[in-house]
Amino acid sequence: MDIQKLFSVKDKVVLVTGGGRGIGEMIATGYVQAGAKVYICSRSAKNCEETAAKLNALGPGVCKSLPADLQSVDDIKTLVAKLSEQETHLDVLVNNSGATWGKELFEGGAPIDEYPDEAFQKVVNLNLNRVFSLIQACLPLLRANASTEHPSCIINIGSINGIVPPSFESYAYSASKAGVHHLTRHLSARLGREGILVNAIAPGVFATKMMAGTLKNAGDKIIEGIPLHRVGSPEDIAGTCLYLSSRAGQYTTGATITCDGGSVLSRL
């Protein structure tokens, strides 16, 4: 057993969607600091470029910007075509891009009698349908270097709200994330024979820019409901991804790993 290489992702080629901010940026930072070659995607080209520049300054890995609107199948095809021009293979795909309806995830969404159809269409399309679309488009790159001895890796970012229904009315979000978890299990059974691992991470509350206002207004109450009495840090989510995409995680597939400080347990 080579302990020095057990969690290594050095020189691996990684694509992180939604990598320009929030949890995606935390994940991308972890890979760059572990020496990987990381491509980040987000709808905002400006945000993507700024984050890539910041991560390149950190090193020792590299970060490149590939902006795209993942709601669009055409944009997904263009994204993968651009990636294919630069790389002959892809070691790790992290499907992190996601949407909520307005501020539904933290402020109640819309009452069931008023919940708009466009909310379901938008949220489920990006959070679930396009996860499958991107995986499908990336399969040639994921297969290129994959074997059971040296597998490629897909990590789908779900949510604890896809495990235990939230108290607020974010129907599309929780349903889409539950779908991501089950899609992960289905894909893992199919792709394992090709040397492609497929796992999901279900994050809880993390200290992101999107959560800043909520944590400021209700942080004490939120933390009180988390058994570990803190919110997630970049190390928590990045470390889970590094495990799943390194030698240490090569016998793990089809799993949904909670990364939530135990908050799911407090809801049971």
Structure characterization notes:
Helix content is 46%, strand content 13%. With 268 residues, the chain is of the alpha/beta class. It has a single domain (3-259), classed as NAD(P)-binding Rossmann-like Domain (Rossmann fold, 3-Layer(aba) Sandwich), CATH 3.40.50.720. The chain has a 7-stranded parallel sheet with strand order 3-2-1-4-5-6-7, with helices on both faces. Helix 2 (45-58) links the parallel strand 2 and strand 3 (62-65). Helix 1 crosses helix 8 (234-244), helix 3 runs parallel beside helix 5 (117-144) and helix 5 runs parallel beside helix 6. The model has no long low-confidence stretch (mean pLDDT 93). Belongs to the short-chain dehydrogenases/reductases (SDR) family. This is Rhamnolipids biosynthesis 3-oxoacyl-[acyl-carrier-protein] reductase. InterPro entries: NAD(P)-bd_dom_sf (IPR036291), Sc_DH/Rdtase_CS (IPR020904), SDR_fam (IPR002347), Sec_Metab_Biosynth_SDR (IPR052178). It holds the Pfam family adh_short_C2. One of its GO terms (molecular function) is oxidoreductase activity.
Topology:
Layout: E1 13-17, H1 22-33, E2 37-41, H2 45-58, E3 62-65, H3 73-86, E4 92-95, H4 104-107, H5 117-144, E5 152-157, H6 171-191, E6 196-203, H7 212-224, H8 234-244, E7 256-259, H9 263-267
Parallel strand pairs: 1-2, 1-4, 2-3, 4-5, 5-6, 6-7
Helix pairs in contact: 1-2, 1-8, 3-5, 5-6
